[in-house]
Structure formats: structure tokens, C-alpha cells
Amino acid sequence: MISFAELAEVEDIIRSVNEKAVLPRFRSLNDSDIAMKGPMDPVTVADREAEDLLRERLTAFLPGSVVVGEEAVSEDPSVLDALTGAAPVWIVDPIDGTRNFVAGSGRFSTLVALAVGGVLQASWTYAPVIGRIGTALAGHGAQVDGVPARVAAGPGGASLPVTTSHPVWWPLTYGRAVDALRDAELDVRYFDACGIEYLDLAIGARSAMVLTWEHSWDHAAGLLLVAEAGGHAAALDGAPVRLAGGNALPFVAAADAATAGRIREIIVESGQAG
What we know:
The protein has helices spanning 4-22, 45-61, 70-75, 98-103, 174-183, 194-202, 216-228, 257-270, and strands spanning 34-38, 41-44, 66-69, 89-96, 109-116, 119-127, 132-137, 141-144, 147-148, 161-164, 187-190, 208-211, 232-234, 251-254. It is α+β, with helices and mostly antiparallel strands. The chain folds into 2 domains: 4-146, Fructose-1,6-Bisphosphatase, subunit A, domain 1 (Fructose-1,6-Bisphosphatase, Chain A, domain 1); 157-270, D-Maltodextrin-Binding Protein, domain 2, CATH 3.40.190. The strands form 3 sheets. A 7-stranded mixed sheet has the order 3-4-5-6-7-8-9, sandwiched between helices. The mean pLDDT is 93. This is inositol-phosphate phosphatase.
């Protein structure tokens, strides 16, 4: 569906959009540049302009393709229907970690993935301020910062590093699962930027992630990156994670199936199930 040369061409598009729409506004936002889509869910003029530019350039790059972007979906949820359509779909989060971006932290990234028929073909995770880029091509591996990426099997016991989203994003009963993971002597910590966390998992700096939500724009790029780095992801019931949603939550992305299975079992036994 896409070649190594085209993988680099799309990377150039993503970098160019950041140079035009995102980076000039980093630490330069005015109050009028920021709106709230919901509690603790900001959107900026940079998010919207970057998504518009990515839509224009990516669909021109691959005629006949469509875009499912976070900001478009927030305006019209029917945009998500493209995930189950026949056309190639670019899944886009123009700024993953908008809260960090608004706060002046460089821990944000642009996430782009290409899927056909619900199957991921390629992905890009670009964190411009901290200077990191992850790419993956289905069946051909993954790279982070130009180096082949490979997950690392985590140790058991208290040193097994597991990350999850902040408690405010969990259902009301989230504490049962987190407490159960800690009681099982897993080292559970909270992360602030999903895309960057997937990068860390793909290079072995993490052993697993527990994800409590399933927005495709947050996860598509990272799921392929981790899979092509040798990792494993599954919904709470053990089924593959579906881009179009309807997964049993939380789902787990991990260095291997055994680690993911162990974490899922602890969560199920805790009574926290989606």
C-alpha cells in the first residue's frame, strides 16, 4: 500500500505542517487562541489549522483517501464512519497532548496513521520540540529516531513498569484496577502524553500501557509502532483492538502477550471491566 520512500514523503508533510501551523504558536498562544471542547479538553487554533493542512496534503498525496481527525470528529461524529468504509483512511491527531502544548511543555506530538479496511498500514509519531520521530510500515518493522525499534521484555515483580492515564480519565471505579496492579507489585505510574508513551514502549523504556479510552486518533499510530517493534496489544477480553471502537476496556499494549495477559487478568479479577 505504501513504500519506504512514501513513508519518508509523508514524514516530510508532517514536519512541514508542524513548521507552518504548530511550532510558531508554541508558547505564543493568546487566550483567544484556546477553546474548551469539554472539561480539561482544550483545542487551539494550532490543532485546527494543522488538521486542515494535514487533510489537504494527505488526501492530495493519496487520491481517493479520506481523513478521520480528532477535531473533525468533535464537530461531526459521523466522520468516524470512514473507519469502516472502503477508502484508505488517514487517522490524524494534529496535537496529541494539547494540554501540554497550551501549558508550554514540549511533550506533545502529531500522530498520523494510514489504515485500509480497518487494518493499519503505516504510522508516524512526530514530537517536534523534543526532537523524536517514530515510523512503522506494516510487515517491515518500526524505527524511532532512525534506529530500528524493539520492545524489551519487562522483569516481573515490583520492577515491571506499567503506565496508565491519569485517574481523572478513568471510570469512577478506576481505583480498584490500579490498586490491584500495585498490590500485584507492578510499578504503576501515570503518563501525560499518549503518543510519546507509545514511543517509549516501542524502544523498551516501558513494559506496558493500560489504556482506558479508545479514540482511534490517539492510538492508531502507536499501536502499529508497537506491533512492528515486536509488541502486543489486546482488549480486556483478549480480542484484537478494533480501530472503529467497541473494545472491552481498558485495553493493554505491552512488550509481549504474556505481560499483556497478566495485566488483563489482574484487572478482570479486580472487578474493573469495561
